[in-house]
Amino acid sequence: MPERLFGTNGVRGVVNEDMTSDLALQMGKAIGTVMGGALAIATDTRATADMIKTAVSSGMMSAGVNVLDLGVLPTPAIQYYVKTHDNVKGGVMITASHNPPEFNGIKCISFDGTEASRKEEEEIEAHYYKDIPCAPWDSVGDMDRIRGAGEEYVDAIVSKVDAESIRKAGLKVCLDCANGAAYETTPLLLKKLNVKAVTVNCNPQGGSPGRPSEPTEENLRDLISLTRSTQSDLGIAHDGDADRCVFVANDGSFVSGDKSLALLSKYILSKNKGLVVTPVSSSALVEEIVKGSGGEIEYTAVGSPIVARKMIATGAVFGGEENGGLIFPEQQYCRDGGMTVAKMLECIVKEGPLRDQISGFPVYYTVKKKIECPNDMKKHVLEHIANESTGATIDRTDGMKVVFDEGWILARPSGTEPIFRIFSESKDEEVAKKRAEKYEALVREYLN
Questions:
Q1: CA-CA-CA-CA dihedral for 43, 46, 48, 50, to nearest 10
Q2: DSSP string covering 181-224, please?
Q3: Domains 152-358 and 365-447 share a fold
Q4: I want to staple 55 with a disulfide (CB 3.0 to 4.6 A). Which of 21, 251, 284, 431 is the partner?
Q5: Residue positions annotated with a catalytic role
Q6: pTM for the predicted model, two decimal places
């Protein structure tokens, strides 16, 4: 059976080891054959972006497909372009998101701007393993350089929020783009909203991102310090391809993705009651705030395409993940870091400083562990955990969620890396820590 190529978010690997130009060329041929028509392509700022983009584009053109090169863009910006241009049949984003600089990846986008479904990915994978015939020399595709896609995306965001109220508020923020794909679009968004920005890591230097691309508290020490020292209203941090965003409050405290998801759920539900969709990995805080705000919650497996499709199917008013990937249906059904920035600015203008808004939230303690685990061992590890958790309530929506009277443990294999993730949550910090350590030890002992 051919190896599965697509993980939770596209095909990723270390460049010139797993992610080679040969793989990218064949992937381009497969994508072009399956999707057909004109296809958009964009990249983040990684040093290897041009190599992978050129190989994928060559493959697509050899299959007779016209390629529209949008340049460097956040992932949600190319998704918005594909969604709003009827002549475009799909897209490809060259990015490895939060992975280290030596990685790169290929993410496919459907005609409606959503991330490709698993069915579409399977069709592309099936073609990848075939000898794909090339188009005749006089039927190969062309490549056109398209300018302005980033500004189209920014203007759409501005139109979806109360821009006038934001402009009148005279806000000041600190912005950290990890030298990634939002280095132009988010500063432009802030400028159009009359928000003064102090920037750090806002250069197109993805080969040396200034900080690790994953926007964790540990990786955002400079932004936290800067937000506090400049007395800014907000600190804003993106991951490498800017489909996610996390915040630093006005007092310099880090705000987890769970808290911003809960807060914006509350804000949106105050205007429009309905359903909020989120993965099983999200904090119970989200459910508590959603239900307390008159909304309902539905859980899915981890993965933004899964959340987005459940939102479409249920007519949800909002959704998102605990990692800062939030989905606003009025804009598009995908994680959108730019839209998250604008909506949070609107929220603090209307409801008050971020620190004040979240200070009344119930406190949950979440401990996260990451364990190296060969891909072929992941299934066995899950069964071992199930055998060691007899008597507890087990939810198999994604991986293994073991629910206790005081909190829960989620053990799940990564879809993008050879690692196993352990999430532990409780209102008792010591309980959360001890459970995380117990289940980490269970996995390590089994692997050893």
A1: 30
A2: TTTTHHHHHHHHTT-EEEEES-SS-TTS-SS-SS--TGGGHHHH
A3: no
A4: 21
A5: 97
A6: 0.93
The architecture that CATH gives domain 152-358 is 3-Layer(aba) Sandwich (3.40)
Element (H, E) at 347: helix 337-351
Give the whole-angstrom CA distance, residue 265 versus residue 293. Answer: 8
- Domain spanning 365-447: CATH 3.30.310.50: yes
Tens of pLDDT, residues 168-179: 999 999 999 999
Cα(243)–Cα(240) distance, integer angstroms = 8
Q: How many Cα atoms are found within 13 Å in the side-chain-facing hemisphere of 425?
A: 21
User: pLDDT (tens digit, 9 = 90+) per residue, 287-345?
Assistant: 999 999 999 999 999 889 999 999 999 999 999 999 999 999 999 999 999 999 999 99
What homologous superfamily is domain 11-147 in, according to CATH?
A: Alpha-D-Glucose-1,6-Bisphosphate, subunit A, domain 3 (3.40.120.10)
Stretch (H or E) spanning 308: helix 304-314
Instruction: Measure the CA–CA gap between 258 and 3, rounded to whole angstroms.
Output: 34
Instruction: With residue 411 as reference, give the H or E element that holds it.
Output: strand 407-413
Angle at 111 between CA 108 and CA 112, to 5 degrees: 105
Residue 420's nearest CA partner among 397, 399, 394, 391 is 399
Alpha helices by DSSP H, listed for 63-199, are: 75-84, 118-128, 149-159, 163-169, 185-192
Residue type, 63: A
The CB-side HSE value for 403 (13 A sphere, CA atoms) comes to 9
Q: Distance between CA 53 and CA 69 in Å, rounded? A: 9
pLDDT per position as a tens digit, 417-448: 789 899 999 999 999 999 999 999 989 988 88
Domain regions of the chain by residue span = 11-147, 152-358, 365-447
Sign of CA dihedral 332, 337, 341, 344: positive
Q: Tokens at residue 241, please?
A: 């391809």
Instruction: Tell me the β-bridge partners of 383.
Output: none
Measured CA to CA, the distance from residue 419 to residue 412 in angstroms comes to: 9
How long is the chain?
A: 448
In the predicted model, is pLDDT for residue 2 greater than 80? no
Between strands 407-413 and 419-426, the pairing is antiparallel
Q: Is the pLDDT of residue 9 over 90?
A: no
Confidence grade of residue 238 (pLDDT, cut at 50, 70, 90): very high
pLDDT of residue 416: 65
